[in-house]
Amino acid sequence: MRKRSNPVRHIVRIVISMTLILSFTGCATVETIYHSAPGMLPGTTRNMKTAGYWIERHPFPDRIILDSRELEFLNRHIIDELKTRKDLLDLPEPYPSIKIKDRIDMVSRSFKSRTLFNEKGCQVGESFFREMERKMGIDKLPADIPLRFGIISHYTNQRVFPTNTKIYANGSSPSL
Q1: Number of domains comprising the chain
Q2: pTM to 2 decimals?
Q3: 55 domain residue, yes or no
């Protein structure tokens, strides 16, 4: 005589099996891909990026740290010696286009020297760069370019070439 199966017991087995299967697949880690460097360093919080956070912790927040002469000296040191910033007021007027052409050439060469891929995972070839140079119209730049305005930004994505085509350092990761 055959034993009759208990439907509740059968359902419990199915639920336990599904739970085990889903727990293994649901816990798969997904690689976080940053299109820029993370905005926060490990061990820091968002409010640490505000002046108020640091002013609150300083024992003498109203004390002058650098007078105007010392501040001017520090700024000159950063601009002239460290060369990490440019003073927009020090740029020549008009701006010589040869400097722009040289900078574009330097950036283009740095990209051409690397193996890069498009969004489809195909390697970007020399024809891509020739087309970008044609679109830039570097040969049409006047000898001198009048300065109009400058924009200083905290962070910005930059389009290096005149295209919507994205290029990547490898064929499977959207990070350059």
Answers
A1: 1
A2: 0.50
A3: no
In the chain, beta strands by DSSP E = 95-96, 144-145
Could you tell me how many residues make up the chain?
176
Q: Are 103 and 148 in contact (CB under 8 A)?
A: no
Residue at 113 is within a domain: yes
Ramachandran class of 36: left when φ > 0, alpha when ψ lies in -120 to 50, beta otherwise: beta
pLDDT of residue 163: 87
For residue 113, give its domain range: 92-176
How does pLDDT run across 100-132, given as a tens digit for each residue?
Answer: 899 899 989 988 998 888 888 888 989 999 999
* Residue pLDDT, tens place only, 45-62: 888 888 899 899 999 989
Could you tell me if residue 168 is inside a domain?
Answer: yes
Q: Is residue 68 part of a domain?
A: no
No. of H helices and E strands in the chain? Answer: 5, 2
CA 39/CA 125 separation, integer angstroms:
33
